[in-house]
């Protein structure tokens, strides 16, 4: 069981229905979602009476080549990019998962984390199910198989048993289902191509890349079926639905050009930068952002403070995210390979360095010392999210209590630890205001990793103790 707790699915999904180049377009879509997961990728296509799959470990461009795409004959496709914590990897957990049954094939891919997975799995195993992966996703396949009646009813009854965060795409031979959890924790959007084909994606940036027009977000607790190119929508649960999208989607995960629940990600980050200035101003010569996810917030801080924005850090684009490395030593090395300070810009300057978040503290500590080594006179760190003090059980690897530096240290201890001249985080209220800047916006946000207010029961995903 311990193994299972290691598995987190913080991924991206893409689906397309009724298009002669389904696999090719799915490949483009996954490429646009690559930032959501770099450990594995897969595409499953449906052609008349069977589904075929290609998946592998690595980046989308490593898993697929033109021959592999051309061999995926089919007019409907779903695809997945995967990001897991150490221990949760392995080809068996790379998605989509394909189930072959006497009643036909079914493929499933998933972004999120099911909090009652262990409970359901124990129940299913005690009733005779045998699992071939440690991924939560497989549970849904088993639950669906056990129900009776029309497929959509079987899926709805099964989904209603799941608790947690999920965006699922389910592909059968002649239809595709797209689902969002009842809290709306993970995003999922619907688009349409000029020829009428429907497209589904974790983020709107993947709709844009294939030339699809955004239609709408799938609602929390909603299942959408596309069959014969007609959309059918249903709410699959009677349980109260609160729209509580993950705040970290805006802070870090999503691409700045994506729009989630009607709100552009870059705009929210820029707002957060401005808000950071209003809350924690500091006198300095330049503002710099940690590329790429903090550039928008740095632009906002510079605009509000009238302190010039400068390119003080350069990123080597060909190194993966440092966070993904399993050991601290490798993560330290990763940060060094990834970023360089521009001495001619920062030398003798008082620098305000904006980052989107601090998780383990590795990145900030290393960057402060890079800037100081490059001659910066002072480095004032401003963080565009509140301090992350609690783990996420909804599919984002914000790590364990022990590793979360803000769980271990208060702001002044942390400031000293990272070697900064000052340190401040945006307030929860400030971040909320940056995201909900439109008056008509009424949903809530999940902010549990900042404030411990988890939107679901935690079942047996308990905190480990320090
Ligand atoms: P750390 O070095 O552990 O403090 O990581 C902080 C950096 O990781 C920030 O600069 C973020 O851009 C990035 N980050 C934040 N949350 C995550 C996450 N859940 N997974 C991967 N990277 C993250
Ligand atoms: Fe997002 Fe944090 Fe909530 Fe997890 S706990 S869903 S990372 S806001």
Structure explained in plain terms:
- This protein is of the alpha+beta class.
- The chain has 2 domains: 11-242, Aminohydrolase, N-terminal nucleophile (Ntn) domain (Glutamine Phosphoribosylpyrophosphate, subunit 1, domain 1, 4-Layer Sandwich); 264-451, 3-Layer(aba) Sandwich (Rossmann fold).
- It contains 18 helices and 23 strands.
- It has a 7-stranded antiparallel beta sheet with strand order 3-2-4-1-10-9-11. Strands 5-6-7-8-12-13 form a 6-stranded antiparallel beta sheet.
- Helix 12 (328-338) packs across helix 14.
- It is globular and about 70 Å long.
- Residues 1-9 have low confidence and may be disordered.
- It binds adenosine monophosphate and iron/sulfur cluster.
- Iron/sulfur cluster binds next to helix 9 and helix 18.
């Amino acid at each position: 069981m311990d193994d299972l707790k290691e598995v987190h699915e913080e991924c991206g999904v893409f689906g397309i229905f009724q298009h002669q180049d389904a696999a090719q377009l799915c490949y483009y879509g996954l490429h646009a979602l690559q930032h959501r997961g770099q450990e594995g990728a897969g595409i499953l296509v449906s052609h008349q009476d069977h589904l075929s799959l290609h998946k592998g470990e690595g980046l989308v461009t490593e898993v697929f080549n033109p021959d592999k795409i051309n061999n995926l004959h089919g007019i409907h496709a779903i695809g997945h990019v995967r990001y897991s914590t150490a221990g949760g990897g392995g080809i068996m957990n790379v998605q989509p998962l394909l189930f072959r049954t006497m009643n036909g094939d079914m493929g499933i891919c998933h972004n999120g984390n099911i909090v009652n997975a262990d409970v359901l799995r124990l129940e299913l195993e005690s009733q005779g199910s045998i699992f071939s992966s440690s991924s939560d996703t497989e549970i849904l396949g088993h639950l669906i198989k056990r129900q009776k009646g029309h497929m959509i009813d079987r899926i709805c009854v099964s989904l209603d048993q799941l608790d947690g965060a999920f965006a699922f795409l389910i592909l059968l031979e002649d239809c595709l289902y797209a689902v969002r959890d009842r809290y709306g924790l993970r995003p999922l959007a619907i688009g349409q191509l000029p020829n009428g084909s429907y497209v589904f994606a974790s983020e709107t940036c993947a709709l844009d890349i294939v030339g699809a027009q955004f239609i709408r977000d799938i609602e929390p607790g909603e299942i959408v079926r596309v069959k014969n190119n007609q959309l059918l929508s249903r709410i699959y649960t009677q349980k109260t639905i609160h729209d509580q999208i993950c705040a970290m989607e805006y802070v870090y995960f999503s691409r700045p050009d994506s729009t989630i629940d009607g709100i552009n990600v870059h705009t929210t980050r820029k707002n957060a930068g401005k808000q950071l200035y209003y809350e924690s101003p500091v006198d300095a010569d330049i503002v710099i952002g940690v590329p790429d996810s903090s550039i928008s917030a740095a632009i906002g801080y510079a605009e509000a403070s009238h302190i010039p924005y400068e390119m003080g850090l350069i990123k080597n684009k060909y190194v993966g995210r440092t966070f993904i490395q399993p050991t601290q030593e490798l993560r330290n090395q990763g940060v060094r390979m990834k970023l360089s300070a521009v001495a001619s810009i920062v030398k003798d300057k008082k620098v305000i360095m904006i980052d989107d978040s601090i998780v383990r503290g590795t990145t900030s500590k290393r960057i402060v010392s890079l800037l100081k080594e490059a001659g910066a006179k002072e480095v004032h760190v401003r963080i565009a999210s509140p301090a992350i003090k609690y783990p996420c059980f909804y599919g984002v690897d914000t790590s364990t209590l022990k590793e979360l530096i803000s769980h271990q240290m208060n702001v002044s201890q942390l400031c000293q630890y990272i070697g900064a001249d000052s340190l401040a985080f945006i307030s929860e209220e400030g971040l909320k205001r940056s995201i909900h800047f439109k008056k008509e916006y009424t949903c809530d946000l999940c902010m549990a990793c900042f404030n411990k207010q988890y939107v679901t029961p935690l079942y047996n995903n308990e905190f480990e103790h320090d």
